[in-house]
Each structure stands twice: as structure tokens, then as C-alpha cells.
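Sorry to interrupt, but I need a hand with the structure work. Could you add the entry underneath, on a fresh line?
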Amino acid sequence: MSQCADQWRNFVRETSYVHNLKEEKISNDQFWRSYGIYDQVLMHSGYPGEILNKISSFISPEATLLDIGAGTGAFAIPLSRKTAQTIAVDPSAYQLQILSEKARQEGLTNIFTIKKEWKDVDITSVDYSLAAYSLFVEDVENLLAKMIDVTKKGVFIVFRAEGIDSLNEFAYGTRPYADYLCLYHILKDIGYQFEEILFPRNYYLPIDLVFKQYRFSKKSHDELIGHLSREGRLQEREDGKWAAFSAKDALLYLIR
């Protein structure tokens, strides 16, 4: 067991949203229903942005795409305009319902949804596979290997490349951390050399969305605002307070 694998397992157990599921005694579906502003946050944050364009540049027309942890379709919806079929896998019925409604509104009929965790999905072959911020499992080596094994042309993994936001540490305290380099080295340990590209983002969120993002914190709204104010990250607008954020996403990819 490598140091990076240990680091990833500690992160999943103590820090990732999987930790919140256990601590709050809620299901995956309940977690996402409580975070109904997810798409609003994505819209303000500029995600997936240029990562989407880069992945799209690799995908050949009329290919099949597997999106693991597809969520509400940040990648599955736009990429399906290019593919013959997109298989969207996610354990949350709520997220897949939103994805399916978006597909219906855009007239996309080539998206097939599977309400399961990736470990329980039986797929033999696809042209491309994608996992964006979705491999929150302790047994990550086997699930990465499974993803690569079923993929013929290209594998894409998206995860964070920046350090921990100080607001996160203020809200939850110091906890285990993992970034894309952890996944990069785990992939290398199991025999795969991936390429990497980093994509920075700077954005503002309305303060009410910040509160909903940090809904599991024991800090009060005033305490969160105080921290942001001390760091000079608050901006007063006609429609209220907005908070500044910066992020960096990493794309790991393997083209065959």
C-alpha cells in the first residue's frame, strides 16, 4: 500500500463528502437534495470551463462516453452533443433526475443513466471514460483500474490542484487533504502514466450560496463572514455581499 493510497483513504474517511454522509447519517441522495444550489455554484464558479473544451477536443464524433459520478451533467450534457451515446453513472436519483431534465430540454436522446455506484456497474467497453470530482472511495486503485480496463480510447480524471481554502479550514478545522497529485501517483503505482494540465479559476459567490456550501460547519454565518472580511474577500454589491474564491482544477488524461 503506497503512501499516496493511505493519504487518499484518510482523506475519504475524514474530509470528503462521504464523511458528511456518515456523520450526518444521511444517504447520498439526501446529501445532494440538501445541496440544491449545486448548479448555481457551478454557474458562478466557471466550472468546468476550459477543461470541458480540452476533453471535447480529444473525443471523436459518434463515440461512446462513460461519465462516472455524472451529477447534474456538467460534462455529460455538453459532451453528449458530440457522442453517439453517453452513459451517466451516479448513486443519486436526485442528481440524475436533474441531468435527465436538462437533456430533455436540450433535445438530447443519447444519454443513458445508471443509478449506482461505479463499483456496482457492469460495463464491458466504452470509447472514453470520465470521472470528475467523483472517486470518493477508499478502494480507489481497483475502481481506477476498472475504469481504465473498460476504456478503449481515452480516460479523463478531473480533481483539484489547489491547496485547502482558508475558509474551509476555518469552518471545519485541520483535516486530511488530497489533491490530483495523490491520484497521479496512485495511477503510476498501478502501472499507468497520465498526462496532466492545470486550469485556474477565480470567481465570486453570493454570500447565501457560501452559507449553503458550508451548511455542515459549526461556525455561525457571522463567523464565516468575519473570516472572509479579515482576508479581504468580501465585496459589497447592490444585491448584497459576495465572496471571492480561487480554484485550480487538474485534468489527468490517458489517450490510447
Remarks:
- The chain has one domain: 3-202+247-255.
- The chain has a mean pLDDT of 95.
- The CA atoms of residues 12 and 136 lie 6 Å apart.
